[in-house]
């Protein structure tokens, strides 16, 4: 387990939740807003309806858990509201059963602790024309209509009134703007994902704004150096045999340590020998947590001194950051990694593979822009792919949770079987694959599934 005990905010639902951590997604926005304050935990399952949720509710939210969530945001409804398939298979759940299922979900969550709060999200509206354009005839016998979404949304609002549950009516919230169908239900980064069901960045912003209205007040640490990290190491990673320890810890302390010393003796600068010793102590502590806890160190990325001056003015006159100091601290960490057999990603060299690295990868000369973050992710995935760790922690090698077949998934084109989408890799994840994975993915036959 990673401590200290921050409030846990759990997002629980179907694809609207599973996809909420994509770039610009509402879960990712919440995680950014609550950094250093609360942990946003994703429990999203594409294709699920309220029946499937009920079947595993006690596994996802066990009453005997030592730590219970402070807030659970629940979304089920869109798949339940699909029209029934003639075969009797599929995601449709009749309205009375849907309401009863949501009631049972609420009562279970409420029983977890006196401090556990709940917010329900209703179905958002759908763009039927866009669904038809994107999925073709995959919806012929199991339509999604805006009208049924409204009916199920209103039923959930009514249930929430009866039980004094905070509820966000996404149907009404999203349709406050005239261009909602295209602005709120279109993935910006590729035309392939104008599916009429899932949120764009604009749609995600509406979800976040509505959640923040619900009066809920609930951890990186900006400005920290390796000394700060050492001081709270036992709190963040307690050596407690009764809790689940992390499978992987990715550690970054370097940039602040490498700043020049301030004349006052204050400031984040840590002399190089002490920095190396601090990182060694951090690694030894994390390794002691369990035999299966893996570690990846990240070095300093490069900095652009001119951009820092332009952005911060003379704020750094007496404690400047230099690219040369970043190089020295990075190389020292790489050397420590070799000595201790720790995986180290040298961001200082990875970023400078292209001539325009500063303008492309950095926002203010120090912190990462979106393209810079992509480089970090690609380097981490490369390490995870190539590491001979058992079990593997590479995303394409790990099993999906609750991956069993279910009669409640969307019905396939044969009209007789459902399509298990628990382990489907979405097209927008293609940029994170290597060449072999990408080739295999492109050659694999794919059917558009309206989840």
Automatic annotation (TrEMBL):
Molecular-function annotations in GO: hydrolase activity
Domain SGNH hydrolase-type esterase: 11-205, 211-374
Record keywords, A-Z: Hydrolase
Keyword Hydrolase: yes
Keyword field contains Hydrolase: yes
InterPro entries: Iah1-like, SGNH_hydro, SGNH_hydro_sf
Name used for this protein in its record: SGNH hydrolase-type esterase domain-containing protein
Organism: Buddleja alternifolia
